[in-house]
Amino acid sequence: MREFTDTELLFELEPVVAGELDRHLKVAKEWFPHEYIPWSRGRDYDGVFGGEAWADTHSAIPEEARVSLVVNLLTEDNLPSYHHEIATTFGRDAAWGTWVHRWTAEEGRHGVAIRDYLTVTRAVDPVALERARMVHMGEGFANSYEGVLHSLAYVSFQELATRVSHRNTGKVSLDPDCERLLSRIAADENLHMLFYRNLLGAAFELAPSQTMRAVTDVVTTFQMPGAGIEGFTRKAMTIANAGIYDLRLHLDDVLLPVLRQWSVFDLTGLSPEGEKAREELSEFLGRLEVSATRFTDRRDSRRARLAATATSPE
């Protein structure tokens, strides 16, 4: 069973890219970030306009939602690096190039809208946010995976993970304005996921064993693109404890739905290398199930103890 080079994969998959691009353009809805920002809630900050300095009491948004909003925004801020990575991998020509630029344009709205919301509503410290942006963007982003198939596998899962994170952050914020905005952004992320997921589905038909290896490599080493944010581990734990994005959601709402769509455990005709990759994937998912269950059990027990303490008589 032959293996395809990246050049061959780009050529063979280009008709699929063109078809998926046409489908995307038909279903994607035009929207405008400024329409999702409650501008009337804004007022001048200290500085050149002599307004009021930010204070923690200015927003009623829960701390865990604020942490997630900042992580999501800083992740979106690295768009120039993401564009560089996918343009380098997929190219700037024909349907591939058209998609790369369209994706970048759509993603660009997300950072603009979230920053406007946070600034106008005083949800987070704007000085700390800007300093964090400078540090994070100064680090840049480099794709951890080489090659077309690995890159497609990564973004198939990452776009869905981002969608889940945005939607759940909106719910936890307890702010209808925030939830409306993040739901709109999540809708974009879902369409992006569909594009990449369908494209990799075509890759499975073209090179099943080679694609299986790529999927297994990505699933077993997956990290969100914001993993380089300063203090990410602590922030990720806050987000997980709030139920915004945790191992259970990663497994049940991201990995398994996409893997089922590709029918990875029903594929036939795999080479010995492809079968080995599938076995590795199955074993990893089993271990992840154990870890996810252990995490949620511990979190539920901790919440129960806190609730009991809060309701117990003094």
Could you give a quick summary of the protein structure above?
This protein is 73% helix and 0% strand. The chain is mainly α and 314 residues long.
Describe this structure in words.
With 314 residues, the protein is an all-alpha fold. It has a single domain, classed as Ribonucleotide Reductase, subunit A. Helix content is 73%, strand content 0%. The protein has helices at 6-27, 63-77, 79-90, 94-121, 126-139, 148-173, 176-206, 208-221, 232-241, 247-262, 272-311.
Low-confidence stretches: none
Number of domains: 1
| Mean pLDDT value | 95
Write the element-wise H/E pattern from the N-terminal end onward. HHHHHHHHHHH
Structural class: mainly alpha
Largest sheet: none
Determine the CATH topology.
Ribonucleotide Reductase, subunit A
User: In angstroms, what is the radius of gyration?
Assistant: 21 Å
Alpha carbon gap, first and last residue: 72 Å
- CATH architectural group: Orthogonal Bundle
User: What is the share of helical residues?
Assistant: over 70%
Number of helices: 11
- Classified in CATH, the superfamily is Ribonucleotide Reductase, subunit A
Beta-strand segment tally:
0
Instruction: Give the CA-based shape.
Output: globular
**CATH level 1 class label:** Mainly Alpha
Beta-strand content estimate: under 5%
Features:
314 residues; Ferritin-like_SF; globular; fatty acid biosynthesis; mainly alpha; single chain; Ribonucleotide Reductase, subunit A
How does the SSE layout of this entry go?
Elements: H1 6-27, H2 63-77, H3 79-90, H4 94-121, H5 126-139, H6 148-173, H7 176-206, H8 208-221, H9 232-241, H10 247-262, H11 272-311
